[in-house]
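We store amino acids, tokens; thus:
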Amino acid sequence: MSSPCDPAYARAGDVATAVMVMDSRLKAIYDGKAGTDPEQQRLAEEFVASMGPADADALLDGVCTLIYMYMDWLRTVCERHDKDVLEHVVPTLVATMRMMPNTFRPEVIPTMAGLLIASGTGLSPNLWRAQYGDWTRAEMNPLEATAVLLAEQINRMVGDDQEFATRLITDALAVTDDN
């Protein structure tokens, strides 16, 4: 029986922009400038201000698609090593979230963990979240940070290849464009 949260029913959203934002955040982290570059912050704020509601929804769906794709990749890797993706990934990311109280207020951590668990069990994170109402403003930064944390974990897993998670998505987008 199919779930109403099956990824086949979900909008992919603006994955290209979502991966661009995520990649920009990762580069800032790797360059040691996370959260300290006022020019980067200004550009991000201008970009968000230029978006209409449909664009913002598409970007939100795109970030959820990134989370799903990363968890799907992690699930495949874990299964090859007889590990459970939820047991291997979720506790580490939740512990990291708890160490970042400025980004992850305690009340949003269960939602972000739920997104990871939904994705890790093959459900669409945006359809899973939609069951509980509209996204809140307080969830926007944590949602983006969750995608970045997943990408960073993947990059470390493959031997500190700081571009791997981005290539994973851009390669998938290229295959989709070719079809």
User: Anything to note?
Assistant: The chain has eight helices and no strands. The chain has one domain: 12-178.
